[in-house]
From TrEMBL:
Membrane-spanning ranges: none
Record organism: Amycolatopsis echigonensis
Coiled-coil zones: none
Entry annotated with the keyword Transferase: yes
Domain PEP-utilising enzyme mobile span(s) in chain numbering: 398-468
Keyword Transferase: yes
UniProt cross-references to Pfam families, sorted A to Z: PEP-utilizers, PPDK_N
SUPFAM superfamilies per UniProt: Glutathione synthetase ATP-binding domain-like, Phosphohistidine domain
Protein name: Pyruvate phosphate dikinase
Domain Pyruvate phosphate dikinase AMP/ATP-binding: 66-272
Enzyme Commission code(s) on record: 2.7.9.1
Length: 574
């Protein structure tokens, strides 16, 4: 994408254009350019840049000239599709989607079906011959707008029609959803900008060390409708398993659904095999596109797609959030495939991910006599024990608890960060709870069924998210031996070659033992020390202090996390 002549705040697609700046257009719009450049089918779009977002906050409103440029962008979509925004026989509806330069899945807002009103609903009904579909589009849009733009706090998803949604919004905030589609668009862009500073977005950036001033771009994209008919649907595909890294497609498909239905976890989608059975041609096209994106991206990809009346459209592709186990497996496999060199593979895995992978697991035989109090889908593996709470606020107040929810949303992220494990009643392996838990490397079991929250709240449980089972009480665990894992063993060999620091499990000579002289803070290392040991030197701060002091060897029970921390530290100062 490149800026059209005379536009300051927008970037629009052009054939053969150079790669856009991710910092300017955000990751979502960059992925649209990437897919379009590869010849993949993508609904047309234009982008409001991160510079416009910065100007919005600097001036407390949409910057001068943006409203006119939004009109220009919409006219471009109208001409490309032969549709009309706000009316006409072939109405144009758009999605207004956030997109930061650094991927933050689910942390900011997206408004779908924008441009709908009574007139557009009637035109959509006439075009499709399906008044029920048109009414559902209008109801959904009204709910999106009321919740995300106007700030309605009422539950709107299960209300039967647009009139009921309008009434609930009016009762809650006393403000109607505007009829004018241009007013809708301007307010929606501003709302997406504001969502970049929401509590959930701030908590996510803080947890991952993402700069606070990145803001977000806004992608305005022509709608495609997965809820149009029986030949339509929506889904998410991972080119490699985000759970264990297996080199096979992993994902779900929801017939007659929109992307929000899958992410929200309110509905449990079907496996991709359903799409293969129902539409083998579409399934084959999807897998071919996935293989292309995996190969071109040199990494596992998370792909959002919609099928409209039997035609596949790709909406987004980005590097997949993954568990620690998947990160290790994918890095090693990409070396075996000749995609990465070992030196790059070790940079794809963090010390914290390996520490997570080495967390204890349920001791052999312990689960055989334990009471299983819930079962679901293991969406992010691992084992954790804690007291069950049922709100994100309670989780934040009780770190290390188990957060159990009907389903999770971006508003739950601060609690998910604090929790030792997450369990949900609803949703599948690509729901919000699953995706965010994998990013956090928090054990997560989804789809445990109605009544799980009430049955578990207040109890101490052990969550085995590897097997998808929740047990009553605290089960015994045992440590994991990294030397018995072939992927970890190979990464350790590559990591040792990539740093001057040696990590050993035993010491041959004199050792400065930090555990015998200090606890907590990194102690002062005596001049000339070559070998150190102690738990503090297994932390990033301890590794940094050892390197700064000229230490050549760290003695540690787990070598790989220390080596990866040393590589990261040496890269940061090079």
């Amino acid at each position: 994408m490149t800026a059209t002549t005379g536009l300051r705040w927008l970037v629009v697609p052009r054939a053969g254009m150079p790669e856009p700046s991710r910092d300017l257009v955000g990751g979502k719009a960059w992925s649209l350019w990437r897919m379009r450049s590869l010849g993949l089918r993508v609904p047309p779009a234009f982008v409001v840049t991160t510079e416009a977002c910065a100007a919005y906050f600097a001036g407390d409103g949409l910057p001068d000239g943006l409203a006119d440029e939004l009109t220009t962008g919409i006219r471009l979509l109208e001409r490309e599709l032969g549709r009309t925004f706000g009316g006409g026989e072939r109405p144009l509806l758009v999605s207004v989607r956030s997109g930061a330069a650094v991927s933050m899945p689910g942390m900011m807002d997206t408004i779908l079906d924008l441009g709908c009103n009574d007139t557009v609903e009637a035109a959509l009904a006439a075009e499709t011959g399906d008044p029920a579909f048109a009414a559902e589009v209008h109801r959904r849009f009204t709910g999106f707008y009321g919740r995300l733009v106007l700030g309605c706090t009422e539950e709107l998803e299960d209300l039967p029609d647009t009139g009921a949604v309008r009434a609930a919004i009016a009762d809650d905030i006393g403000e109607p959803v505007p009829v004018d589609p241009w007013e809708q668009l301007h307010a929606a862009v501003a709302a997406v900008f504001r969502s970049s500073r929401s509590r959930r977005a701030v908590a996510y950036r803080k947890h991952y060390g993402i700069p606070e001033d990145l803001g977000t771009a806004v992608t305005v994209q022509a709608m495609v409708f997965g809820n149009l008919d029986d030949d339509s649907g929506t889904g998410v595909l991972f080119t490699r398993s985000p759970v264990d890294g297996a080199r096979e497609p992993y994902g779900e498909y929801l017939p007659r659904g929109q992307g929000e239905d899958v992410v929200s976890g309110r509905v449990t989608p079907k496996p991709l095999a359903y799409l293969a059975e129902r539409w083998p041609r579409v399934h084959a096209e999807l897998l071919a596109a996935a293989e292309c994106l995996d190969r071109e991206g040199r990494d596992a990809q998370d792909i959002e797609f919609t099928v409209q009346n039997g035609e596949l459209f790709l909406l987004q592709a980005r590097p997949a959030k993954r568990t620690a186990r998947a990160a290790v497996r994918i890095a090693v496999e990409l070396v075996d495939e000749g995609v990465l060199e070992p030196e790059e593979a070790v940079r794809r895995v963090t010390a914290e991910q390996v520490r997570t992978l080495l967390r204890p697991e349920i001791a052999p035989g312990a689960a055989e006599t334990a009471e299983a109090v819930a079962r679901g889908v293991g969406a992010s593996p691992g084992v954790a024990t804690g007291v069950v709470v049922d709100t994100p606020e309670a989780a934040q107040a009780n770190p290390g608890c188990v957060l159990v929810r009907k389903s999770t949303s971006p508003d739950d992220v601060h609690g998910m960060i604090a929790a030792a494990a997450v369990v949900t009643e609803q949703g599948g392996a690509t729901s919000h709870a699953a995706v965010v838990s994998r990013a956090l490397d928090t054990p997560c079991v989804v789809g445990c069924g109605a009544g799980t929250v009430d049955a578990l709240v207040g109890r101490t449980v052990t969550v085995d998210a590897t097997c998808g089972v929740v047990y009553a009480g605290e089960l015994p665990t045992q440590a994991v031996d990294e030397s018995e894992d072939e992927d970890l063993r190979r990464l350790t060999q590559w990591a040792q070659r990539a740093t001057t620091l040696t990590a050993s499990t035993t010491a041959a000579g004199a050792v400065f033992d930090a555990d015998s002289v200090a606890a907590g803070d990194v102690p002062e290392i005596p001049s000339g020390t070559k070998t150190v040991c102690g738990a503090v030197f297994c932390t990033p701060e301890g590794v940094r202090a050892a390197l700064d002091a000229g230490v050549e060897e760290i003695v540690t029970p787990h070598r790989l996390p220390v080596l990866l921390a040393a590589i990261a530290q040496q890269r940061s100062v090079s």
